[in-house]
């Protein structure tokens, strides 16, 4: 306290000047309309810019919450798409929404680990069996097909990426519906895949969309990529073609796990069929 008093006493002339200067400025601005308007306008611009910066910082700090919320909303909306339902009726001309029952639901998840530069690439997500994830479920994102779950723990799961030498998914050309299967290209390019075993009668075009078929882990029509090269054709009864993948795996942050409600029933019937054979 004593040091503060000494400091004020030592510089009392400066503080008196500062006080009188502030008083004079207040009087000058208060009783002159032009200067008052200018001061208010300038103050508004400064405070507005300051609030903009503060709000920008707040928005940045809340990006995680916003992303999580958007991921949940995307999963909910995916579950409402018509491709997530199957028609539970044999009436050919019946148009009634009660005839459609939900076949697919979606579990949103955040990517916590990912690789793209290996021959066998995997993705770790922050959802497990406690949230309903199980081995064999398909995984997609907003851009398209990602892979399938190969291990599910209680809280985390491991996804075998499409960028894996053993990944193979049923696919089709979007226009002609010709079936084939998609796998990663042999040159390990994370943006390229190969659509194989397409009927030799198909007439694919450059830029034509490639999507999931009804015989995959996913709802039909999930984007996979676009035909980018028609020169990889093979003779015989099938065609192969290069596909530019829709998903940029290097930027993957959020995914949706596909829950097929008919998967167990289908697996049981197919297993029974194999026994009968």
Identify the notable features of this structure and list them briefly.
277 residues, alpha+beta, Thrombin, subunit H, six-stranded antiparallel beta barrel, six-stranded antiparallel barrel, 14 strands, 31% helix
Tell me, briefly, the overall form: elongated
Write down the domain tally: 1
Percent of residues in β-strands: 25-35%
| Assembly form of the protein | single chain
Number of strands: 14
The CATH class label is Mainly Beta
Tell me the CATH superfamily.
Answer: Rod shape-determining protein MreC, domain 1
Helical element count? 5
Question: In terms of structural class, how would the helical and strand content be classed?
Answer: alpha+beta
Query: In which range does the helix fraction lie?
Result: 25-40%
Main beta sheet, described? 6 strands, antiparallel, barrel
Alpha carbon gap, first and last residue:
97 Å
Q: What would you say this structure looks like, in words?
A:
The chain is α+β, with helices and mostly antiparallel strands and 277 residues long. It has a single domain (65-86, 96-276), classed as Rod shape-determining protein MreC, domain 1 (Thrombin, subunit H, Beta Barrel), CATH 2.40.10.340. It is 31% helix and 31% strand. Strand 6 (145-152) and strand 7 form a beta hairpin.
């Amino acid at each position: 306290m004593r040091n503060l008093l000494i400091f004020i006493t030592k510089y009392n002339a400066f503080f008196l000047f500062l006080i009188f200067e502030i008083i004079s400025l207040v009087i000058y601005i208060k009783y002159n309309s032009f200067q008052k308007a200018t001061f208010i306008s300038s103050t508004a611009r400064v405070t507005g810019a300051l609030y903009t910066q503060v709000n920008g910082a707040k928005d940045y700090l809340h990006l995680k919450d916003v992303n999580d919320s958007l991921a949940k909303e995307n999963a909910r909306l995916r579950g409402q798409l018509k491709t997530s339902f199957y028609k539970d009726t044999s009436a050919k001309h019946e148009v009634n929404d009660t005839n459609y029952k939900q076949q697919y639901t979606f579990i949103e998840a955040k990517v916590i680990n990912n690789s793209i530069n290996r021959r066998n690439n995997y993705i770790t997500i922050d959802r497990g069996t406690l949230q309903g994830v199980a081995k064999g479920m398909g995984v997609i994102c907003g851009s398209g097909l990602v892979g399938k779950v190969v291990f599910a723990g209680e809280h985390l799961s491991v996804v075998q990426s499409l960028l894996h030498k053993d990944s193979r998914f049923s696919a089709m050309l979007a226009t002609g519906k010709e079936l084939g299967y998609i796998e990663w290209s042999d040159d390990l390019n994370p943006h390229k895949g190969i659509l194989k075993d397409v009927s030799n009668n198909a007439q694919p075009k450059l830029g034509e969309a490639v999507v999931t078929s009804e015989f995959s882990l996913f709802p039909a029509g999930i984007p996979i990529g676009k035909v980018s090269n028609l020169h990889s054709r093979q003779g015989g009864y099938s065609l192969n073609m290069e596909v530019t993948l829709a998903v940029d795996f290097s930027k993957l942050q959020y995914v949706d796990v596909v829950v097929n409600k008919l998967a167990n029933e289908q697996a049981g019937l197919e297993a029974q069929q194999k026994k009968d054979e």
